[in-house]
């Protein structure tokens, strides 16, 4: 069964159509969703954990596309299961 990651801002799954961006805490979102979040939120925080995000750090695009992201998530999931 494939692992499908999604943007917690818009709830859509990541795919090859839209860029994915990350904040320093490691949470990932669609880049457009994250930019809109930063433009409209009263403070610049991660939409998921609310940690403060410095403006200079920005929201770098991840070069991972859907297939690579899915592979990375599956590997992380398998590693976490082997440690438990």
TrEMBL record:
One annotated GO molecular function: zinc ion binding
Pfam families reported in the protein's UniProt record: zf-RING_2
InterPro entries: TRAIP_ubiq-protein_ligase, Znf_RING, Znf_RING-CH, Znf_RING/FYVE/PHD
Stored SMART domains: RING, RINGv
Tagged with keyword Zinc-finger: yes
Transmembrane segments: none
Residue ranges the record marks as coiled coil: none
GO terms under cellular component: nucleus; site of DNA damage
Protein keywords: Metal-binding, Zinc, Zinc-finger
Record-annotated RING-type domain positions: 7-50
A biological process term (GO) from this entry: protein ubiquitination
PANTHER family per UniProt: E3 UBIQUITIN-PROTEIN LIGASE RFWD3-RELATED, E3 UBIQUITIN-PROTEIN LIGASE TRAIP
The protein, known as: RING-type domain-containing protein
Organism of provenance: Accipiter nisus
């Amino acid at each position: 069964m494939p692992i499908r990651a999604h943007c917690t801002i818009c709830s859509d799954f990541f795919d090859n159509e839209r860029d994915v961006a990350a904040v320093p805490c490691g949470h990932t979102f669609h880049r457009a969703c994250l930019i809109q979040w930063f433009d409209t939120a009263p403070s610049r925080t991660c939409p998921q954990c609310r940690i403060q995000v410095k403006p200079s750090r920005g929201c770098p695009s991840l070069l991972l596309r859907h297939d690579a992201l899915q592979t990375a998530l599956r590997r992380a999931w398998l590693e976490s299961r082997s440690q438990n």
